[in-house]
Each structure stands twice: as structure tokens, then as C-alpha cells.
Amino acid sequence: MRAASSDLPIRFDAVTVRGDAVIMLDRVSVQIEAGAPTVLVGPNGSGKTTFLRTAMGLIAPSAGRVTWGGAESAPPLRRAFVFQRPAMLRRSAQGNLRYALAAARVPRVRHDARIEELLALVGLDGFERRPARRLSGGEQQRLALARGLARDPDVLFLDEPTASLDPAATKAIEDIIRAIAASGIKVVMSTHDLGEAKRLAGEIVLLHRGRIVERAPAADFLGAPRTGEARAFVAGELLV
């Protein structure tokens, strides 16, 4: 297991994010700590992606503040973000990883061994020389996970990592996420799939209209939701 992270806890204090006259996060206060995966759920437009990007440091709050391990200005050297549709560099699989390792300031002498480790972790052994853009959607997502892990992060943000994947590719990604979490890396991810949340989450956070309306251990959220919004969401009703 990894040592306690210097970037954790990540704390939101009354964070509001506005964009184009729309409030995307509305006075959110929450603390993300080390442990099992935190899974964000909620309807489209509820603020999940904005929350992840703000926690990563890609978006600055319009009001309130975010701190990482108590620091308000923490460079994202030990945080990584995997987008829902990751862009592949026009290089081989190992070329994509070599670029990520260089960006993470990993000494060049360690690149070959680390590339081998990362490809093995995501089940892409033997894909070193494959053009990344010719990989299947599921394979590209696995390579994107490997790229995120190249910087040896304390916390890994995943924005709907299995969206549009078939069941086999989804299972492969979920297995990798479990392995990542078991290694001590904090996973914070969004999903539209309650089944996936049930399979992966230590805790579930429901966002609606930019606010956190319920946060609970996964078993409690799914089995005995406290708020009307959570009960409706678990029941498959639309939140508007």
C-alpha cells in the first residue's frame, strides 16, 4: 500500500463555479479522503465533470476555495485525469507512455522498465509498437489509464471511463480500476451507471443542479437513500 498522500485530503469550501451565466457548481463543501473509490453519480448536467476538473485544478472556482493536503496552490504533479474521450497522440502505445513519463519528469533511464510495467498493468502486453490511434475504444481507454498512472499519482480522476464501451471492455476497465484502488491510489470517478457504482464505489456522491444532495457509503446510498432525490435516482426516475 502507498504512503499517505500529500495531495489528500482534497477539500472544497463553499465552491461555486460559473460559466456562461450558468452555475455549474453551487456552494459545494466536501472533503475527499484516501480510501476506496469515490463515485459521482447524477443526471447529465449535474456538475460531475466540473467537480472532477475543479478537484484536479483544471478549473478555478468562481467563489470559495479548493485545497490539496491543506495547500491552496498545489501543482498537479501527483494528480492525474483521464477524460471520457482521451486523445491519443499520433505515436505508438509505448510512444504515448514515453511522452507521459517525460512530462512527469521520470528519468529517461527508467522509461523502458516503467513502460513494460504500465502496459502489463492495463493488459496491453505486446502492444508496445501498435499505433495508439488504431487501437479499439476499450484499448485506447486502457492506454489512457496507463498514461495517467505514468506520473505515479496520489489521486486519479476518471470521467465516465466506461462510457460507450461494450460489456467485455467495461469489465476490463473496471478490473483495472479495482487494481489501481487496491494499490493505494485514490480513485474519484463519475459514472452514469448505478450498477458500475455498486461494483466499484466505497462511497457514492449524488450531484444535482450543481449541488451535492447526498453522500453515503455505497451500500447505504443504494439500500437506504435518505433524500428524495437519491430515492428517485436509485429507483430509475428522472431528476429534472
How does this structure look, described?
By secondary structure, the chain is of the alpha/beta class. It has one domain (10-234): 3-Layer(aba) Sandwich (Rossmann fold). The chain is built from eight helices and nine strands. The protein has helices spanning 48-56, 93-103, 111-121, 137-149, 167-182, 194-200, 218-223, 228-234, and strands at residues 10-19, 22-32, 38-41, 63-68, 79-82, 155-159, 186-190, 203-208, 211-217. Helix 2 crosses helix 3 (111-121), helix 2 packs parallel to helix 4 (137-149) and helix 4 (137-149) runs parallel beside helix 5 (167-182). The model is unreliable at 1-5 (pLDDT under 50).
